[in-house]
Design a protein that fits this description.
- By secondary structure, the protein is of the alpha+beta class.
- The chain folds into two domains: about 100 residues, F0F1 ATP synthase delta/epsilon subunit, N-terminal (ATP Synthase, domain 1, Sandwich); about 55 residues.
- It is built from two helices and nine strands.
- Strands 1, 2, 3, 4, 5, 6, 7, 8 and 9 form a nine-stranded mixed sheet that branches.
- It is elongated.
- It starts with 5 loop residues before the first strand and ends with a helix.
Length: about 160
């Protein structure tokens, strides 16, 4: 593998979404923005929902809408290359839900955003009418509606439609 290039796998429960030789992967963890390059320090970290950019060894950047997950970076002799290779890097992103930007249905994501905004408004109004605050069930429903809204917004952002 050429210098500055590493193995990258993006996996979901449903698919081996992306296998590539990459120069960089850029994402956000709960600790902040993260860029991984060849030779990066080994790490395991969370991935927060958002745009993940992959800079392949050749070609244009690839964007993915990732809705949370984990990233593992392995570095060392024999990793990411042939035996006897001095050093290599392998990056694995495990996501519960991830979509390539080109496969996002923008109209569907816009409908989902509108529905989630409406549901959230309805739930908050009902909780406010209840007086002393939201019940545990109402809090759960509000959290689910907020998560649905965030997923739709991430899809639209990555698709370039927000």
């Amino acid at each position: 593998m050429p210098d500055g290039v590493f193995e990258l796998s993006v996996l979901t429960p449903e698919a081996d979404l992306l296998q590539a030789e990459a120069r960089a992967i850029v994402l956000r963890s709960s600790d902040g923005d993260l860029t991984v390059l060849d030779g990066h320090t080994p790490i395991v970290t969370d991935v927060v929902p958002g745009d993940v950019r992959v800079d392949p060894a050749d070609g244009e950047p690839v964007h993915l809408a990732v809705h949370g997950g984990y990233l593992q970076v392995e570095t060392g002799p024999g990793v990411g290359g042939a035996e006897g290779q001095q050093r290599g890097t392998r990056v694995t992103l495990l996501a519960g839900i991830a979509e390539l930007a080109g496969s996002i249905d923008v109209a569907r994501a816009e409908r989902q955003r509108t529905e989630a905004e409406g549901r959230l408004e309805e739930l908050r109004a009902a909780a406010a009418r209840g007086g002393t605050g939201a019940t545990e069930r109402e809090d759960l429903e509000i959290g689910e509606a907020e998560a649905a809204l965030r997923r739709a917004e991430v899809r639209l952002q990555v698709a370039g439609a927000s």
